[in-house]
UniProtKB/TrEMBL annotation:
UniProt domain AMP-dependent synthetase/ligase: residue ranges: 15-414
Keywords: ATP-binding, Ligase, Nucleotide-binding
Database matches in InterPro entries: AMP-bd_C_sf, AMP-binding_CS, AMP-dep_synth/lig_dom, ANL_N_sf
Entry-linked PANTHER family: AMP-BINDING DOMAIN-CONTAINING PROTEIN-RELATED, LONG-CHAIN-FATTY-ACID--COA LIGASE
Xref: Pfam families: AMP-binding, AMP-binding_C_3
Species of the source: Parazoarcus communis
Lineage: Bacteria, Pseudomonadati, Pseudomonadota, Betaproteobacteria, Rhodocyclales
Database matches in Gene3D superfamilies: 3.30.300.30, N-terminal domain of ligase-like
Protein name, per record: Long-chain fatty acid--CoA ligase
C-alpha cells in the first residue's frame, strides 16, 4: 500500500468539497432530539477554531491538550489544532491523577481545551494551568479564559485554514494504556494516521457514505479517532454519544450498520439480554432458549461447512422472528460489530453469532498506529484476531513472541531515552504478546508475556483463558488470576452489583455456590491450572482507583496491591482445612 501524501485536514477539506451538504455528525440537543451537522459546517467550525487559536498564539509544533467529552466539539478542535501544524494530546478526565500529571508533564501543552471550570480545576490540581485556556461552556468567569463559542460566532463561508502542516509533521501524541506501569508517550505523524485509515477502509470496503457509525468511546483513545477519520474519507455519518451509560438505550434510535466496542461492552450486552430473558414467563424463556440454540447450531454449520442443511434452514426460519426481538436492542440495520483492546471470549462470539450478530475481533498495539490484524465479514475465524493488514510484516520469534515491522510502527517513546524501545536492530517491534500464525495467515494470541507466570512448582499459567472461563459465570463482573511463584493459582472475582449473589455471598450457602461455580467453570483445565482459592469482592474495579485503564483493561499490579492481604489469606486457607480438595472445592475468601 503506497504511503499517503495528504494530511488529515486536507482530507476533511476534500470531503467538504465533495459532499458539503451531506450529514456528517449527529448529536443530542437539550430536548433529546438528534441535531445534524453537515460536512461544510464541520470544516468551517474547525477553521474558525483554528483562526481563534492562531490569534491566541498557538503555532506549528505546539502541543494542545484536549479534554472534552465525546462530542463533535472534540473533532472540531482536533482538526483545528492539526490545521495549525500543532499536535493533539488527548486527555481523559477520568484517568488517575498520577497519569494525568505524567502526561501533562511529558508533553508540556501550551494550550488546553476543556469542557468547563471543574475540569480546569482538575488540571490545576494535577499539574498547572497552561498558557492558553479555552473552555466549551458558554459562560467564562475569568478574562484569561477563552470561550470556544467565541471562535464560532462569525464563520466566513469562504475561509481557508490559517496554515497547513506537512504529512510528516506530528499529528498526535498518544499514550500506552499503562496496564503494566506508567503510560508511555507515542508520537504519530499525519502520514502514519492516514495510513491506518486507508488500511482499515481497504479491509472493510463496505464502509461507505451509506454507513451509520456510533462515536461513543473516549476520544482520548486513538482508535476511535481513527474510525472518525475513516468516516471523513468515505463520507459515513457518525452519531455522538457523550455518556457511555446511555449507549444501549440509544442504539435502537441510532440504528447503526457497524458498531465498534470493547469486550466489556459485549459482556454487559449479553448479561443485559439474559437478565431481560430471565424476567419472561417460563414458556417464553423455553421458546427463546430453543430459538437461540437453533441459531447457534446453524451459525456453527455456516462457519464450519459454508452451508446449512435444509432441515436446519427451516428451523432457522422459525427461530429468526424470535431472535429478531432480542436483536432489536442494537437496531435492525446491524451488519457486523468489531471488538478490540482485549480478548473477547469465543463462547460469547458463538452466542452472538447464534443470535444473528457477527462480532469480529481485531488486534492492535499502541506502538503501531495501524491495527495489526483483524477479521472481516468475509474472512474470519472465531478465537483468532484475523489476518495482518497490508503494511504489517509479522514474525513469530523463537520464544513465541509476535514481532511486527512496517511504516505504522512508532519510532520510539516520546521524551524517553533512545535505548528504551521495544524495537530491535532489524526494525521489528516486540509486541510482548505470545502468538502463532496458522497456514492461512490468521493470528492466534496466546497471552501477554508480562501476564504469563510460573507457580512455585514450575508450571506455566496463562491467566487469560482461565479469566474468560470465570467470566461466563453470570454474576462475575471481573476475574483476575494471580499466583506467580506461589503453589497454585488464586482467582480474584468481583461480583456484579445487579446480581443477587452480591447479597448471598455473605452467607455460607452463597460462598459454597461460588466455590462450586468456579470449580465447574475451570473443570476443562488441567488440575495445576485450576484456582486453589477464590477471593470474592462486592466492590467493583474502577478507573478512578487506578485498577482499570481508560479502555477498561485491568491493571494487574494495582489489583494485586488492593487484594494483597486477601491473597495472603487465600494461601493460608487450604492449610486450615487439610481435607479439602482445593481443585474441586476451592475455599472462598470474602473481602469488601
Amino acid at each position: 500500500m503506497p504511503a499517503p501524501t495528504t494530511t488529515l485536514p486536507e482530507r476533511l477539506l476534500a470531503r467538504c468539497k465533495d459532499t458539503p451538504d451531506a450529514v456528517a455528525y449527529l448529536h443530542r440537543g437539550d430536548d433529546g432530539k438528534w441535531l445534524p451537522v453537515t460536512w461544510h459546517t464541520v470544516a468551517q467550525r474547525a477553521i474558525g477554531i483554528a483562526r481563534g487559536l492562531s490569534l491566541l498564539g498557538v503555532q506549528a509544533g505546539d502541543r494542545v491538550a484536549i479534554m472534552l467529552p465525546t462530542s463533535p466539539e472534540w473533532e472540531y478542535c482536533q482538526q483545528a489544532v492539526l490545521m495549525l501544524g500543532a499536535t493533539v494530546v488527548g486527555i481523559d478526565a477520568h484517568d488517575a491523577p498520577s497519569n494525568l500529571h505524567h502526561i501533562l508533564e511529558l508533553t508540556q501543552p501550551r494550550a488546553l481545551v476543556t469542557g468547563n471550570e471543574r475540569q480546569l480545576a482538575l488540571i490545576r490540581e494535577t499539574w498547572r494551568v497552561p498558557e492558553i485556556i479555552v473552555v466549551a461552556e458558554p459562560e467564562v468567569p475569568h478574562p484569561d479564559i477563552h470561550a470556544l463559542a467565541d471562535f464560532l460566532q462569525t464563520l466566513d463561508t469562504g475561509a481557508t485554514p490559517p496554515s497547513a502542516p506537512s504529512p510528516d509533521d506530528i499529528a498526535t501524541i498518544v499514550f500506552t494504556s499503562g496496564s503494566t506501569g506508567t503510560p508511555k508517550g507515542i508520537a504519530y505523524t499525519h502520514r502514519q494516521v492516514a495510513l491506518a485509515c486507508d488500511a482499515i477502509l481497504d479491509r472493510f470496503p463496505s464502509i461507505s457514505n451509506e454507513t451509520t457509525l456510533v462515536c461513543w468511546l473516549p476520544l482520548s483513545n486513538l482508535f476511535q479517532r481513527i474510525i472518525n477519520l475513516c468516516a471523513i474519507v468515505c463520507g459515513a455519518r457518525s452519531y455522538f454519544v457523550s455518556n457511555p451509560q446511555d449507549i444501549v438505550r440509544l442504539l435502537p434510535e441510532i440504528q447503526p450498520s457497524l458498531f465498534i466496542g470493547v469486550p466489556r461492552f459485549f459482556e454487559k450486552l449479553h448479561a443485559g439480554i439474559m437478565a431481560e430473558v430471565a424476567k419472561q414467563p417460563a414458556p417464553v424463556r423455553l421458546l427463546i432458549a430453543a430459538a437461540w440454540t437453533t441459531g447457534m447450531k446453524t451459525a456453527a454449520m455456516q462457519r464450519s461447512h459454508g452451508q446449512v442443511s435444509l432441515t436446519w434452514r427451516a428451523l432457522s426460519m422459525l427461530a429468526n422472528p424470535i431472535l429478531a426481538r432480542l436483536r432489536a436492542v442494537m437496531g435492525q440495520r446491524m451488519q457486523f460489530m468489531v471488538s478490540g483492546s482485549a480478548p473477547l471470549p469465543s463462547w460469547l462470539m458463538d452466542r452472538f453469532h447464534g443470535l444473528g450478530w457477527l462480532v469480529l475481533e481485531a488486534y492492535g498495539i499502541s506502538e503501531n498506529v495501524m491495527p495489526v490484524a483483524l477479521n472481516t465479514p468475509t474472512h474470519y475465524r472465531f478465537g483468532s484476531v484475523g489476518r495482518a493488514l497490508p503494511g504489517n510484516e509479522l514474525l513469530v520469534a523463537e520464544d513465541g513472541e509476535l514481532l511486527i515491522r512496517g511504516d505504522g510502527v512508532f519510532s520510539g517513546y516520546y521524551g524517553a531515552d533512545a535505548h528504551d524501545t521495544p524495537i530491535d536492530s532489524e526494525a521489528y517491534l516486540h509486541t510482548g504478546d505470545f502468538a502463532r500464525l496458522d497456514a492461512d495467515g490468521y493470528v492466534w494470541l496466546e497471552g501477554r508475556k508480562s501476564e504469563v507466570f510460573k507457580t512455585s512448582t514450575g508450571r506455566r499459567i496463562a491467566p487469560a483463558p482461565l479469566e474468560a472461563a470465570l467470566k461466563q459465570i453470570d454474576y462475575v463482573d471481573h476475574a483476575i488470576i494471580v499466583g506467580r511463584d506461589r503453589p497454585f493459582p488464586v482467582a480474584i472475582i468481583t461480583l456484579s452489583p445487579e446480581h443477587e449473589m452480591g447479597k448471598q455471598v455473605q452467607t455460607p450457602e452463597g460462598q459454597k455456590t461460588i466455590s462450586s461455580d468456579v470449580a465447574r467453570a475451570c473443570e476443562a483445565f488441567t488440575p495445576y491450572q485450576r484456582p486453589g482459592a477464590v477471593i470474592a469482592s462486592t466492590r467493583p474495579l474502577g478507573i478512578a482507583t487506578g485498577e482499570l485503564t481508560a479502555n477498561l483493561k485491568i491493571r494487574r499490579k494495582q489489583v494485586e496491591t488492593r487484594f494483597e492481604r486477601d491473597i495472603e489469606r487465600a494461601y493460608e486457607a487450604p492449610r486450615l482445612s487439610p481435607d479439602t480438595d482445593i481443585r474441586t472445592n476451592p475455599p472462598v475468601i470474602l473481602t469488601p
